[in-house]
User: Fold this.
Amino acid sequence: MTSLHSQAQSNPLVSIVVPVFNPGDYFQITIKSLLNQSYTNIEIIVVDDGSEKSAKDSISALCSQDERIHLTSMPVNIGGGGARNRALEECRGEFIAFCDSDDIWPSEKLSEQIAFMLRHNVAMCHCDMILVNEIGAPLGERLASSMIDLDEFLLTTSLYCSSVVLKKSVIGAARFGRMRARHPFKFWCEILEKAIVSHNVKTTHFIYRVRKNSVSSNKFRMFWYTLLAYILYSRSPWKTPYYLVRRSLRL
Assistant:
């Protein structure tokens, strides 16, 4: 009994949340990268966020190829935040990770992060990212802060879903917002305001795909989404000008 308990502690189940909506070929690459993780005690919670029928059939066919993938289909599109919230209801793992439907994980990513969290007894971690374009050509890298608390997050907003692993026990009632962009802002604020600190695992990274028509590729639109997120979700909205000015000085 003790041996089984010890094994469970050193090899905890990790739930990987993947929202998807009308994906292209990138989704298959993403799922393959998750299934190829060297850390194998995983479940992949895919939420089809109201995709069109042809895409829905492709998603279903792909997800049926491995028993570790669990598919939930939404009848209508509710956005990435709502889809992630739905997935959180299905997660059975002691740890939860997130991956966007067009991002890629190196095979050692999850293993490195779980080992770090168990070794240092921390509740949350993240990693750096490498940016690629639509055909996979490198565009550069983005290095995250070594430690991110609430104040650091409000200055940098440098927590990306595909980089984060955290203990399920710290989530509680925290949920993603319903905005079409910046919906993770609310979730990270609600986690970090519990005095949780996220630690950067420098031995790994994830690959972020930049697409021409995505919201995140339009800097003007992202500025307004960021401003709106501060106003809606920050516990100190009157500090919004202060954080925005400090952000601009650090960019």
User: Anything to note?
Assistant: Residues 2-213 form a domain with the Spore Coat Polysaccharide Biosynthesis Protein SpsA; Chain A fold (CATH 3.90.550.10). Strands lie at 14-20, 42-49, 69-74, 95-98, 124-132, 138-142, 147-148, 165-167, 198-209.
